[in-house]
Amino acid sequence: MVNQNLAAVLSAHGVRPTQQRIAVFDYLLTHHTHPSADTIYNALSKEYPVFSRTTIYNSLNTLLEAKLIRAVNILADEQRFDGNTKDHGHFRCLSCGEIYDFDISGDMLQGLCPSGFLGEQGDVFFTGHCPRCLPSKS
Fold first, then answer.
1. Of 27, 29, 72, 99, which shows the fewest CB atoms inside 10 Å?
2. Separation of alpha carbons 23 and 69, rounded Å
3. Residues 95 and 65 in one domain
4. What are residue 70's DSSP bridge partners?
5. Whole-model pTM?
């Protein structure tokens, strides 16, 4: 049932619902850890041993182009992915490396956009230490 719903969402966005795209999309919608492409590949290759890394990267690029997922670019050397496409920000803990979501309004994002420009998407992120790691920094 879930796969049929995801297939319908993909189709509604002009994306052919292949098994690989459905699996990658489902993984991102159910794992809110902002995984990398390698993390997704390692997780899905257990259930789908025929999936290649290239297949995962191609599926992610297709989902990005359709605006069904977002790229999270906090780390210079690693792109992460997010199934939550609503306006929100990200916080990366410098101690544990976890990436957390935080609420941010569309009005706030527009307020950050330079005057005279029309922003369509904004990425706001912070780095620092999460509440779990703060005691070790004291």
1. 29
2. 13
3. no
4. 82
5. 0.87
